[in-house]
Structure formats: structure tokens, C-alpha cells
């Protein structure tokens, strides 16, 4: 049942607005506030799906109400009610985040259309928030070990900043999850996170992929093309396996980090970019520097914050939680009931040598769910989880 609040100091206008809205749809629950102070207090204590607010009121005017509501409950659409002399102010409230404004005396059709559209918008915002939570769960880091707790604490501290982060650790440990958590908990979460696997792109194409190119800059460049840095503008770029990047591309990345601008292949024109860089590697970059394959100055630019993700063998206490998580995930994907694992099966899996880390464990859990009994047993593990 949609809940609507009318904040208006003139009782007659409050009654008219309430009557029009209530008669339009008897499921609407309409409440009233005689001034801005009362209205803000009601909004603070209760959840509303829409607020209609007069602009000129004693004690607290509509602009102040709008500013306060946008701070405490920004998802609530605000429709401002303006007198003839308030139109300039009404237009200004749109810049401050108001959904719309209606003039006095209210036009019936315009009022009802605005109410319907605002409620639809509120519903869409709620759906997007739920979807965002589902997306976040996809990248959830599972585990209560000291190592994982330390990483989670670092993410909480580092994510709200624009500090560059270098994530290290063996293949399959979850470096990508750390990168996604950093982005989703940052102020850039509404902007894109663009991923680049540096190891999967041929060295002769990596510069074009990162920085774009202009038409005719090389064979096959048939039109201008923006690169990943431009696509990530305002957001985050995740350079996975950065240890495999060519030295020439490293030089361009270094310039982008130093000057916050890039140039497309074949062009001298600078393009300003506002991008947070997160990088990851399974290589020992200091060894790569010693052997001349990685730039030391780039390393120091990237490694403002270092996060090391441990191998699964170094956090075996997390394996039971991971097994449960993957069992639920596989069951959901396949549309089946969740299978349980016996204590003996879990204990045996904890003793395995997980050279493939989290990725390998996930594959083994899926194999055991498909091939094992209703409750995965120790014998199932011996039969189907062998290397």
C-alpha cells in the first residue's frame, strides 16, 4: 500500500490534495503535516513512498525540507507545490533533486500523473537496490579466518578512498572478488567497473584495448575507437594479470596515472580521465623488476595499498563455509535441492592439497553434488574428488 505525505500549511489545500489522491486510488494511504518541521519529523520516523511539499511555509520552507529529506532518505521522490510567484524556486528545487513540481491551484490530471510517475520511480529505485544486493552477494568473500578478516577490514578502510590498490596472490584465490568489493563499497559504485585481462590480450593490441585508437593508426583500424580507460571514466578499471603487460603499455599506463590523461593510439590529442586503478597479479613483481620485465616506477604508482590474498591451503578453516556456499550456489544454478556434506566428507576435503585454490574447490563441490549420494559422504569424496 503506497504511503503518501502531504506537507502544506494551508488546511484547505491539504484537504483538496488528500481528497483528489485518495479518490484516485483507495489503496493510497495519505497522511498530512501542517508545516515543514512536522513533515521532516514524520519522514524521519516513518517510511513514505512519496512526499508532496509546499515551498512557502512558516518554520521551515519547502527547499529546506527537500534538502533534509535528500540527506536522510534520498530514495523518496519529492514533488514540490508552488504558488505563481514560486516558479523560479520550484525550478531550482529540480536541480536540488525534486522529482517534479505542480502549481497552485493543482490541475487534476497533472497532479495524478505526477503521483503515479513518482510512485513508479520509487518502486524502480527499490528494485534496483534489491538487484544491487544480489549483485553484491555474487562477489561475496566467504570465510572467517584471520587472513580473510584482515582483507575485509582493509577493504572497509580503503574502498571509500581513491587510493590505488595492488592485489597479489596465486591463481584461483579470489583476487577478482577483492577488486569487485573495493569498487562496490566505493563512492564510484554507480559508475562502471571495467575489467581488462592483460594476459589474454596480445601485446600488439593491449595499447589499443586500454587507450583506444584513431582510424588508420594501424592495419584494421577502420574507425575511431574508445579504450577501456575512457569506458571506465568516473569509475574503476581493474587491470588483472598486470605482470603480463608489455613494457610499452606499462609506460602509457604510468603516464595515465601521473597525469590523469591518455591519448589514443595514432593520436596526439590528450583525453582527461578520472579513473581509479586496481591491479592484480599472481607474479612476484619485485622479481619481474629485477629481471627487467616490469617498471619499478609503475609498481610504486600501483602499490599504494597492497592486499595479499592467501592460498586456500593457508586458510583451511574456511573450507566448510566455502563448501556450504558452493553447494547452495550449484543447487540454485541447477534448480535442485541443496545437498549436504557429511562431517567426514568435509574433514577429508579440508585435508586435500588445493593447488587450484578456491576455483578448484568449487569445481570439486559441483562434481560431488552431481555424482555423490543424497548426502555427500567420505566415500564419495574418495571416489570423485581425486586429483
Automatic annotation (TrEMBL):
Q: Which Gene3D superfamilies match?
A: 1.10.8.60, 3.40.50.2300, P-loop containing nucleotide triphosphate hydrolases
Task: Output the SUPFAM superfamilies linked to this UniProt entry.
Answer: CheY-like, P-loop containing nucleoside triphosphate hydrolases
InterPro entries listed in its UniProt record:
AAA+_ATPase, AAA_lid_NorR, CheY-like_superfamily, P-loop_NTPase, Sig_transdc_resp-reg_receiver, Sigma_54_int, Sigma_54_int_dom_ATP-bd_2
Record-annotated Response regulatory domain positions? 3-119
The superkingdom of the source organism is Bacteria
- Species of origin reads Lutibacter oceani
Name of the protein described by the UniProt record: DNA-binding NtrC family response regulator
Q: Which UniProt keywords apply?
A: ATP-binding, DNA-binding, Nucleotide-binding, Phosphoprotein, Transcription, Transcription regulation, Two-component regulatory system
The UniProt entry's GO biological process terms, in alphabetical order, are: phosphorelay signal transduction system; regulation of DNA-templated transcription
Positions of modified residues (4-aspartylphosphate): 54
**What Gene Ontology molecular-function terms does this entry list?**
ATP binding; DNA binding
Under Pfam families, the record lists: AAA_lid_14, Response_reg, Sigma54_activat
The record, for PROSITE patterns, names: RESPONSE_REGULATORY, SIGMA54_INTERACT_2, SIGMA54_INTERACT_4
The residue ranges of the Sigma-54 factor interaction domain are: 141-370
Amino acid at each position: 500500500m503506497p504511503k503518501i505525505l502531504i506537507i502544506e500549511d494551508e488546511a484547505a489545500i491539504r484537504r483538496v490534495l488528500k481528497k483528489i489522491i485518495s479518490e484516485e486510488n483507495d489503496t493510497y494511504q495519505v497522511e498530512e503535516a501542517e508545516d515543514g518541521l512536522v513533515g521532516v519529523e514524520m519522514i524521519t520516523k516513518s517510511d513514505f513512498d512519496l512526499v508532496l511539499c509546499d515551498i512557502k511555509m512558516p518554520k521551515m520552507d519547502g527547499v529546506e525540507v527537500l534538502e533534509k529529506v535528500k540527506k536522510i532518505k534520498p530514495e523518496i521522490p519529492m514533488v514540490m507545490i508552488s504558488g505563481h510567484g514560486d516558479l523560479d524556486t520550484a525550478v531550482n528545487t529540480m536541480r536540488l533533486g525534486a522529482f517534479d513540481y505542480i502549481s497552485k491551484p493543482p490541475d487534476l490530471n497533472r497532479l495524478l500523473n505526477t503521483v503515479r510517475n513518482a510512485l513508479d520511480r520509487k518502486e524502480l529505485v527499490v528494485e534496483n537496490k534489491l538487484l544491487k544486493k544480489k549483485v553484491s552477494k555474487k562477489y561475496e568473500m566467504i570465510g572467517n579466518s584471520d587472513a580473510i578478516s584482515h582483507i575485509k577490514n582493509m577493504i572497509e578502510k580503503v574502498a571509500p578512498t581513491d587510493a590505488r590498490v595492488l592485489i597479489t596472490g596465486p591463481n584461483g584465490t579470489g583476487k577478482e572478488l577483492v577488486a569487485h568489493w573495493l569498487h562496490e563499497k566505493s563512492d564510484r559504485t554507480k559508475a562502471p567497473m571495467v575489467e581488462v585481462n592483460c594476459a589474454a590480450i596480445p601485446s600488439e593490441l593491449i595499447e589499443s584495448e586500454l587507450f583506444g585508437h584513431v582510424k588508420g593508426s594501424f592495419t584494421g583500424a577502420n574507425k575511431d575507437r574508445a579504450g577501456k580507460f575512457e569506458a571506465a571514466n568516473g569509475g574503476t578499471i581493474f587491470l588483472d594479470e598486470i605482470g603480463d603487460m608489455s613494457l610499452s603499455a606499462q609506460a602509457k599506463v604510468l603516464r595515465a596515472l601521473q597525469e590523469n590523461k591518455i591519448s589514443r593510439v595514432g593520436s596526439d590529442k590528450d583525453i582527461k580521465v578520472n579513473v581509479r586503478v586496481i591491479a592484480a597479479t599472481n607474479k612476484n613483481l619485485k622479481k619481474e623488476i629485477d629481471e627487467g620485465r616490469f617498471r619499478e616506477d609503475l609498481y610504486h604508482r600501483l602499490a599504494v595499498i597492497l592486499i595479499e590474498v592467501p592460498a586456500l591451503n593457508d586458510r583451511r578453516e574456511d573450507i566448510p563455509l566455502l563448501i556450504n556456499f558452493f553447494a547452495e550456489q550449484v543447487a540454485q544454478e541447477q534448480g535442485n535441492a541443496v545437498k549436504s556434506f557429511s562431517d567426514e566428507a568435509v574433514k577429508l576435503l579440508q585435508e586435500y592439497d588445493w593447488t587450484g585454490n578456491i576455483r578448484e574447490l568449487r569445481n570439486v563441490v559441483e562434481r560431488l553434488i552431481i555424482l555423490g549420494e543424497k548426502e555427500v559422504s567420505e566415500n564419495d569424496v574418495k571416489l570423485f574428488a581425486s586429483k
